[in-house]
Structure formats: structure tokens, C-alpha cells
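Support request from a user on the community tier.

User writes: "When I paste my C-alpha cells into the form, the page sometimes reloads and wipes my input. The last time it worked, I copied everything first. Here is what I submitted, just in case something in the input itself triggers the reload:"
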């Protein structure tokens, strides 16, 4: 399943951009993409933006940041 990061002003059409792709989960392994690095920067450097973040999966199901982080805790994260 692929997860997408939508920031304020982004729409579902923006998921085609690499900067909006958080990464893909397959067989309990998460393969992070550019959007994941952006999310980490926001969480560490701009926590004021957290309320404006939306996370969608490839079935257009919304997830809160807390839900997404809880899922990630169960996955292995594959680094490049």
C-alpha cells in the first residue's frame, strides 16, 4: 500500500508528485520516499504545520499522523 502526504493547499491530484509520496508498505516493510523525509522535517522543525497535514493511502482512506506512526512502529523501515 502506498501512502501520500498532503500539505495545506495540496489536493488528491498532487499525489502524482514524488514529494507527496510518503512511501510504500509491502510485507510489513516500509520503503520511504521523498515525502517521508519532508514529513520528518516538518515534525522536527515545523510542528506548527502538523495540524495542516493529511495522509492518504492508495485507496484514498485518510489517516492521522498518529495512526500512520502507529502503523510504522509495526513495520521494518528499509533505508536506501
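"...and here is what came back when it finally went through:"
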Amino acid at each position: 500500500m502506498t501512502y501520500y502526504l498532503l500539505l495545506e493547499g495540496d489536493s488528491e491530484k498532487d499525489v502524482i508528485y514524488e514529494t507527496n509520496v510518503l512511501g510504500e508498505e509491502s510485507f510489513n516493510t516500509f520503503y520511504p520516499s521523498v515525502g517521508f523525509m519532508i514529513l520528518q522535517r516538518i515534525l522536527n522543525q515545523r510542528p506548527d504545520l502538523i495540524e495542516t497535514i493529511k495522509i492518504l493511502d492508495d485507496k484514498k482512506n485518510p489517516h492521522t499522523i498518529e495512526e500512520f506512526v502507529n502503523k510504522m512502529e509495526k513495520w521494518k523501515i528499509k533505508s536506501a
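Agent notes: The reload is a front-end session timeout and is unrelated to the input. The chain has one domain: 2-77. Residues 28 and 71 are 9 Å apart (CA to CA). Escalated to web team.
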